[in-house]
Every structure is written in structure tokens, then in C-alpha cells.
Amino acid sequence: MYIKLIITVGNIKGGVGKSTLACNIATALSLLSPDSGVLLIDGDKQGSAADFAQSRTDLLGKAGFTCVRAQGKEVVNQVVTMREKFSHIVIDAGGQDNPSLRAGLVVSDIVLVPVAPRSFETWALENMATLIEEATITNPNLKAFGILNLAFPKGSDNDQTHLIIREDYPLLELIEPPVVQRKAFSDAVGQGLCVLEIKPKNHDAIRELGSLLKGIGISEKDIKVIYNGSTKKA
């Protein structure tokens, strides 16, 4: 067996919705690989991803993926130990410059950086970009993506943030469209579900998750498998 994707979701700025994205990605990928499985590593001291997995188990009887908590070098150890057992690994790194985030960057194929369309968030990108550049010294194949998360439904703030990322941080390949701040995402994750599973379905949120998955390399064919899997579970 081989790893199809090892993804770190992280930003040194907290409050950008990285745990929500990590949980949605892990759940979606588990629908794609129910046999070979997905490992979700919670590297955040707050333990939001682990809480999500427990809520999911309480609701459904099982999470559908394996979730472990790990800090710092333990993140690397978990990936090295478990990489032959899972098709995908998703790492929810802490919302600051910490050993878990740095470890995730070293062992991942992809780093996904959620950015909220607010001035403080874009200011923090400079330090995050520096971390990524340092990580590529030992992990030259690391691909870096940015996604505008918790975006506004209307207004120019989204476009302005997109422009800043494109002009000032070219190492971040921007995934579009943005993920809008929707109640469906918070309602779903609070129940231990991803937006593919919550009822009533929010088709805008589902489309945004699909675009995000496509942006990190999941094929249209596999996204259809994920959608069909969520429909069967509903």
C-alpha cells in the first residue's frame, strides 16, 4: 500500500477554521477509501479534531477514520509508523508556530493554509511563508496551497485578500472559489459530521468542499465517489 496524500492543514494564525477544514477533508477522504482508511492526526493542543472524531463515533458508532493525538516529533513518528497502513493522512496542526506544524511540513506532500479575509490574517502570512520555505529545504516536494476560508458572502474583502496572496505570496497556489463562512460548516462539525452528510443539505457548502478537494488533487471521478458515499450514508 502507498500513501496517496499526506496533508497538513495549518497556519500560525489561529481562528482561521483549519480544524473544520481538516475534519471535513478527513471525513470526505474516508468515504473515498473506506477499506484502506484515513488517519487524522490532531496536532493541536485544543484537541478539536479529536473531539470531532469522538462526536462522530458517539453519533454513528464509528468515526470512519482513525484519529490520534500527537505533538511535535510524535507527528513525524506517527506518519513514519502508520504510512503503510493508510491511503491518506491528514494533519491538523496547531494555530501557531509550534513543533507540530513544523513536523507536519517536513513529512507532508501538501500544506493547506486557510486564510480569512481580514488584515491580521494576511499580515501573519509572511511568517507562515517563511516556515514553508524553510521546510522545503528538507522536503523539496512539498506543495503549498492557500484557501480563503470563512470568507464573506459579499463585498470586496475577498478579492483584496486574493490579490494580496497572489502578489505577495506566490509560493501559495490559490484554490478557488473561497469557502464562505456558512452555518452549515459549524453545524455539521458540531454534530460530528461533514457538510456532505448534514441535513438539510447546503449545496453551496458542498460545492465549496468539492472545489477544495479538487484543488488539492482529488480527481473529479473520486469526488463523485465521495458524493455517492455520503448519499448512501445519509
Low-pLDDT segments: none
SS content category? alpha/beta
Number of domains: 1
- The tally of beta strands, per DSSP, is 7
Question: If strands are numbered along the chain, what order do they take across the biggest sheet?
Answer: 3-2-4-1-5-6-7
Tell me, briefly, the overall form: globular
CATH architecture: 3-Layer(aba) Sandwich
CATH superfamily: P-loop containing nucleotide triphosphate hydrolases
Number of helices: 9
As a percent range, the share of helical residues equals: 40-55%
Biggest sheet features: 7 strands, parallel
| Oligomerization status of the protein chains | single chain
* Share of β-strand residues: 15-25%
Q: What fold name goes in the CATH topology slot?
A: Rossmann fold
Q: H/E element string? A: EHEHEHEHEHEHEHHH
Q: CA-to-CA gap between the ends?
A: 29 Å
* Average pLDDT rating: 93
- Rg of Cα set: 16 Å
What does this structure look like?
The chain has a 7-stranded parallel β-sheet with strand order 3-2-4-1-5-6-7, with helices on both faces. It is globular. The chain has helices at residues 18-32, 48-60, 73-82, 99-107, 119-138, 157-168, 183-191, 203-215, 220-233, and strands at residues 5-9, 38-43, 66-69, 88-93, 110-115, 143-151, 173-180. Helix 6 links the parallel strand 6 (143-151) and strand 7 (173-180). Helix 1 crosses helix 9 and helix 3 (73-82) runs parallel beside helix 4 (99-107). It has one domain: P-loop containing nucleotide triphosphate hydrolases (Rossmann fold, 3-Layer(aba) Sandwich). With 234 residues, the chain is of the alpha/beta class.
